[in-house]
Amino acid sequence: MDKVVKEAPYIKVVVLTMHENAQYVKQALKLGARGYISKRSADKDLINSIRSVYNGGIFIDSSLKDLFSGSDEKSDSKDLSEREIQVLKYLVQGYISKEIACKLNISAKTVETYKSRIIEKTGLSSRPELLKYAIEKGLFIP
User: Fold this and answer.
1) Angle between helices 82-92 and 108-122 (to 10 degrees)
2) I need a surface site. Which of 18, 54, 122, 137 has the fewest CB within 10 A?
3) How far, in Å, CA of 136 to CA of 132, rounded?
4) Distance (Å, rounded) from C-alpha 108 to C-alpha 111?
5) 3 state SS of 110
6) Taking 80 as the threshold, does the pLDDT of residue 125 lie above it?
7) Residues 75-98, buried b or exposed e (16+ Cβ, 10 A)?
8) Using one digit for the tens of pLDDT, what is the confidence trace for 14-37?
9) Quick one: CA torsion of 133, 134, 137, 142, rounded to 10 degrees?
10) Domains contained in the chain, CATH given
11) Which one, of 49, 54, 21, lies nearest residue 35 by Cα?
12) Residue 26 class from Cβ within 10 Å (0-12 exposed, 13-18 middle, 19+ buried)?
């Protein structure tokens, strides 16, 4: 997968696997996957994952949420404000600024300000990096 992503970055990879392990998910995202689905969830999540990834989002199937819900690292994200955390959660789900603005009842320009603050505070800028950060901090539960 790493070779595909490096040689053809326009290809968006969705992993369909039998492995339901947090380390596999993190490794796949690190190597450039934009989606991760277990075979037992494929019947309900495959189409949604393809749509989400095609539209620039990142998708992790809902059956894997328990892998990340027990994280004790949430307290390490205290440098992000509550609103920044809300914006981050929508960002890693693939929403664009206009959609986030509608969901949070704020302007798109305000969303951009929050995005800038998140990037500045975390030192990360790409969606895969932000998703990995959110997962590790227990902020993102698919």
Assistant:
1) 100
2) 18
3) 6
4) 5
5) helix
6) no
7) eebeebeeebbbbbebbbbbbebe
8) 999 888 887 788 888 888 888 888
9) -140
10) 2-69 (3.40.50.2300), 73-136 (1.10.10.10)
11) 49
12) middle
**Spatial distance between the Cα atoms of 1 and 27, rounded to a whole number of angstroms:** 11
Asked if residue 114 lies in contact with residue 104, where contact means CB atoms within 8 angstroms, the answer is no
Name the region of 33 (left: φ>0; alpha: ψ -120 to 50; beta: rest): beta
**Which residue type occupies 63?**
S
Which residues, including other chains, have CB under 8 Å from residue 4's CB and lie 6 or more apart? Answer: 11, 13, 32
Q: How do residues 88-97 score in pLDDT, each as one tens digit?
A: 988 888 888 9
Here the tokens at position 6 are 């490096």
Question: 67, 46 in Cβ contact below 8 A?
Answer: no
74 or 58, which is more confident? 58
- Summarize the chain as % helix, strand, coil (round to 5): 60, 5, 30
